[in-house]
Amino acid sequence: MDLSRWGVREWTMTALAFVVFCVCALTAGRGLASGANGEVLRLRFGGDAARTRVVVDLDRSTRGNVVSAGDDGRVIVTLSGVVPRDQLSGAGLGLVRGYRVAVSGGASRIELSLASGAEIERRFLLPPGDGVSHYRYVIDLKTTGRAAARHTPSAPVRHATARTERPLIVIDAGHGGRDPGAMGAHSRESTITLDAALMLKAELERGGRYRVRLTRDSNTYVDLYRRVQIARAADADLFISLHADAGSDPATRGASVYTLSEQGAGRAVREFTRGDDWSRELRLPGRDPSVDRILLDMTQRVTQNRSAQLARTLLGGLEAADHPLLRRSHRDAGLAVLLAPDVPAVLLEMGFITNPEDERTLTDDRARRRLMRAVAGGIDQYFRDPVGPMQMAATGATGATGQP
User: What is the pTM for the complete model shown?
Assistant: First the structure.
């Protein structure tokens, strides 16, 4: 046996084993480090200017500690053992003007800037249950009746000055032209949506309360992103896209409303910050890109909350008119027509074109008129109560808005 060769081979094997050990240890260490903290998923708000509930969605349990209770115009709470994946910020609701969540060591620092004087009424942690799979840390605020000690910049809200003109509503008839959409036994989606859009336009204009614009008024194709551009260029107050659903089971029927998902919100920010002029296009100050990005996030959060409220009032109008709804009728998705960060938008699936009863409703003039009157009633309710007191303004549609 060649001992010199054996010694080299032994040394090589030993060195290789040591390298493997180090790699495994490093990988394990990274795994432990990444698992050392849970994650802050999102913040949600509900309530009004008298009482506001803040819900922090988490993927594990936590313990909260109050740093500031509102005396300086802020409520600051740290949550141990959980951190946000990215810095979270946005507009609030009711007593909360805006919020920011940042990493502070192995904890999260949640800072709520107050719109008016407020104090913490109670705090508690809700474990998973009642159909919710994650933890929720709840902070209930109540007004003190005083002005906030310190005001912070708020999100740029379109139409901040008083408007003398009537609200402008853009109605989008889904599909069209070379894109017929879903097919029913006796109809096609593009025809149904155009008929419904024309009828809804007439219904909204009949009372003289609104200005209305259509993305298409004939059987033509309009690019999805162009539909969003039409609404933004027109300075629309609302955007509603009309569609007819389809499914493999002909027994499935009922309407549903889509609003923008959290993933779609991230996509929207990426879409609108690609160019060099995005700050000017969104009417932001344009002096500091990082500040403009925060303001964009806050604007988008306000828009998502308003879209969620519009979805609720539309579904309420349909339910009051005895129009069938899907069991989970408020849904969320990253659909292209919902991406405008500064125009509240919903996509209404009026029913299933693949269901005989829904198809009859969508193609019968009298039934369709009842449906469009219900939609118009939901829009009326939205403008009467755009915030929706004591309603959860969830950024992700859950179908159970009253649940923390």
Answer: 0.57
